[in-house]
Amino acid sequence: MSVAAIADISYYLTYIEWDGFGISSVAWTILLLIAATILAFVFAGKNRDWCYPLVFV
C-alpha cells in the first residue's frame, strides 16, 4: 500500500504539471526513494516484519 500511495501521488503531481517548487524531477525522485526507504526500515523495525522492505526492492 505504501509503494502504491507514493506512486499515485507522484503520478497525480505529474498529471497536474506541478513544478516541484523549482526542484528538478531527478531530485524529487531521489527524495521519494529516500522517504520510501526510511518508511520501509521504520515499519520493518517497529513490526519486526522482514517481508515488508522486500516490496521496495
Descriptive overview:
- With 57 residues, the chain is mainly alpha-helical.
- The protein has 3 helices and no strands.
- The protein is elongated and about 40 Å long.
Largest sheet: none
Q: What is the percent of helical residues?
A: over 70%
Order of helices and strands: HHH
Distance from first to last alpha carbon: 14 Å
Count of individual beta strands: 0
Unreliably modeled segments: none
Based on CA inertia axes, which overall geometry fits? elongated
Secondary-structure-based class equals mainly alpha
So how many helices?
3
Give the percentage of residues in beta strands: under 5%
Kindly state the mean pLDDT as a whole number? Answer: 84
Give the C-alpha Rg: 13 Å
Key phrases:
57 residues; mainly alpha; 0% strand
What does this entry show, briefly?
With 57 residues, this protein is an all-alpha fold. Helix content is 74%, strand content 0%. 0% of the residues are buried.
Write the layout of secondary structure elements.
Blueprint: H1 2-15, H2 25-47, H3 52-56
